[in-house]
What does this fold into?
Amino acid sequence: MDTRAIVRIALFAAVIAALGLLPSIILPIAMGVPITAQTLGVMLAGIILGPRHGALTVLLFLFVVLLGAPLLSGGRGGLGVLFAPSVGFLLGFIPAAYVAGLVMTRLKHLSVFGAALIAAVSGGIIVEYACGIIGLMAIARLSPLQALLASAVFLPGDLLKTLATAFIAEASYRGYSGAIASRS
Amino acid sequence: MLIDGLARPTWLHSIPASVKLGALPVLSLLLLPIGDWRILAAALAMIAAIFASLGAAGITRLKALRPLLPLLLIVGGLQAASGGLNAGAVVTMRLLALLLLAELVSMTTSTSAMIDAMAPLFRVLRPFGINPRKVALAVALVLRFVPMLLTRWRAREEAWKARSCRRVPLQLVAVFITDIFQLADRVAEALDARGFDAASVRHPPPSP
Amino acid sequence: MKAVAFFQRSYRSLVASSPEEKPCRSDGGGILFEDVEVRRGTRQVLAVPALKMNEPRIGVIGDNGSGKSTLLRLINGLLLPSRGRVLTAGLNTALCRRKLLPNVGFIFQNPEHQLIFPTVGEEIAFGLTERGLPASQAREQAIALLERHGCGADWVDRNVNELSGGQKQLVCILAVLVTSPSILLMDEPFASLDLPTRRHLFRRIMALPQQIVMASHDIELLAEFGRVIWLEAGHIRADGRPADIISAYRVHAMSAAAMDIATTC
It folds into this structure.
């Protein structure tokens, strides 16, 4: 992996961190609960950098968080994040980014917006929630139905985020056609 | 720089990182089979006492975990609904105890100590292509870039606010991201100019 | 693409800003500070008990951290005073922000942070589309503005990334001029530009009809202004004719530098 790739990955991991530290940049405050933009960064990592580099970006981000950096939304960090009930969602970021990137590369015939939307839903919702629910079942000893209920509260916000991801991907492509790895 | 754990070194800091990192899974395994909430409550009390012994910074760190409470309570509630109050209490308390133990380790271990403690793990992963020097560089870059990105973003946000009363649009994020690519290329150039050769990390330079 | 536009419109209405503010009418007047104080936590960052700025060209100088940026940001409402009030063009910065923005343009130091759109035309037209003008009309006005400033109509579709630093800053200035503001605020607008570009842009700016308030380290340029304000540690240390203020500032700078050499290694 050449220097440029390492730097891009590190920089994008920093973007994921920054998006988590600025909770109210993009999304309106829904029912008083500020929705953070961190999952946006994860989906964008896969869509923009491609499946392999996107997954590496998220892996790097999680590694730095585990080392103790308070980069998780809400300023959390350290090994404790592995023991939170949301650990499934956290570790699920990695396959989520990979799948988002993979779907993006496979949908080259669609518009950037359409492909990105489908990619974001595949990775950021389907894969992500699957991992999150498995995590809840394992760590919190919940039944599948209970785990589903517990995670349902995040769904509306996350659906909004997939729309936002698609917008941003499309706007990035318009501004600089090399932005999306699979379409440059 | 971003990771500084607790500002003032405490007694827990002096315990070597590998010991703390090793103790964590052991303690987790010990806690797992416990089904009596009273034992867990006692464990939690001990952990709370350790936090308190670390001073005011420890208490602050404890408070920072507050956002996790809602999810913990939902989980506990769901467990209680199907398995009774005892089950709900046990699950919630166990999770909390594990979380707090992990927090204690993170709070009292510096980044470099962590990376050093992980060295044996890296040696095992080396045949899979994981190069510890590249990883260390990547980590350093992330830590360096986060404050820089925040500053740049705030500058953009300010420029937007000077032209519009609306909330910041997604368009700005897109521009920000294309910015990132240009920045990445410039930093890579600077690294290469300083003699960092991605290929050479595989074969370390001969010692003098 | 129609779907995208639809989503964008609905999204925009979702995130629309606060409801209509009280009737705010600009009287086209200058700038007025009344008993203004800016505090950050317990620290007092700026204190300006009384200040009237009506001259066409006003410079603001001072060391870093003296409050120049704070002063400028108070004028267009990016910052609100902790105490007192600021009236710009007759509008209260705290209450009439929406009316204020098209009247006051702000140019920042780094053009990279201000440019939002990929093409020059979109960037300039933005100020108008933001105020409700249809895109085609806004584009026509953008072209007219470009031609008035000596840039050909072919500029309108140029990609901003192809432009030089000076050209980018010029686009930022035009993007702000398009709403015909009465006041232009500039926070070190030439810091990232070379000397010839600096002088060229300065000449253009001096020819503008707007009232201009500029914070700058380039005291040579400010010598041509009608009034210079010297800020130090959040207070106005001196205020008057450039010739006097600038030479006093130079003396201060040199003695400060000499002192540093004496006390540090």
